[in-house]
Amino acid sequence: MNILVTGSAGFIGAPLAYDLLKMGHRVIGIDSYINSNPEKTLKLEINFKNKFKFFKLDLSSNIEILDSVFNEHKPDLVIHLAALKSVQESIINPDLYLINNIESTRNIIKIMKLHGCKKIIYSSSAAVYGNQDIQPIMENAVCRPISPYAESKLACEELIKDTANQGQIDGISLRYFNPIGSHSSNLFKEQLIRKTGTIMQEIVKVALKKNKFLKIYGNSYSTKDGTCERDFIHIDDLLGAHLKSIDFINSFEGYDVYNVGTGNPITILNLIKSFIKYNKLLINYKFINDRPGDIASNYADITKINKKMRWKSKKGLKEMVIDSWIPYSLEE
Prior knowledge:
Strand content: 15-25%
Mean pLDDT: 95
CATH class of the largest domain: Alpha Beta
CATH topology of the largest domain: Rossmann fold
Number of domains: 2
Structural class: alpha/beta
Strand order of the largest sheet: 3-2-1-4-5-6-11
Low-confidence stretches: none
Number of helices: 11
Distance between the termini: 39 Å
C-alpha cells in the first residue's frame, strides 16, 4: 500500500513508518518539525531509500503542497498522527492548539475527498474522556475534555466521524492512553525538550542529570499511593494496534473509535520506583501541588479492540521502564 503518515518524525510516527516500510509498504512522511527534528527522518531515508518519501510542511496552512503530495503519490490510506500535544501548553495558548490541530485535520479530510482516498486512522487521545467516575473507561463514555488539547482531539474525531457518516471516507480513531518505552529497533528515542515534557521524559532528564530532581504533581488523589494513575502502554504494543487497524480498516466501512491501552492502572510513584529498581538508577523526586488539567485516574477498557481486532498488549511495566532508558543508556 501507499501509506501517508503525518507526524512521521515523531515519537510514534517514526517507528510506525519504520515498521510499515519493513513490511513492504511505501510510506509518504509529513512533518513540520515543530515537535521534532530531521534526525528520525534521516534514519528512515538511509534505511529505506526507495520506499520512503518525506515532505516538510505544516498541515494547518500548506494545503496546496498537501494537494500536490496526494497528486504525486496517491496514498491508499492516511495515518494521521501530527498534532501539537502538550496539555499544559494548550492551557497557556488554547487558540494555537485549537487552530493547528483542527485545521490540520480539516485539510487532510478535504484533500482525501478531492483525491478519492477513503481510509484514515486517526491518532486520538484518552485525554478526550476527562475525569470519569467509572474506571476502566469504555469508548461509549461521555467525553468531558478539560484542556484545549483534549478539546482539539475530540473536535478532530468529530470531523472524521461527520465525513464518514456522509459516506465520503472510512475512519478509525485510536484513543491512545500513555505510550512509553522505545521501539525494538533501538533506532529512535523520544526527543527531550527543555520545557516540561511527558512523565517519562522528565524521569529520563533526571537519570541523565539534566535535572536535579523530578516533580510529582500532587500526592493526595484517591489512588493507591495518592499520585495520579495512568494506563501506560509500551510503544511496540501501540504500533501493533496500528498494524491491526490497517488490516481491519481495509474491510471496514463507516466510523468507529477504539481504546488502546493495557487496562492496568499504574501510579506515577509506582512508575518512578519501577524505573529506579529495574534500571538500577537513582532518581530524586519531590511532591509539589497538583496542576490544572491533570486527571486523577485514567485507564482503558480494552474489550472492544480485543474483540473486533484481536489485539491486546503484551509488554509489562518492567519492559516499559527498561526500554524507556535503553536508547539513552546506549549514549552514556
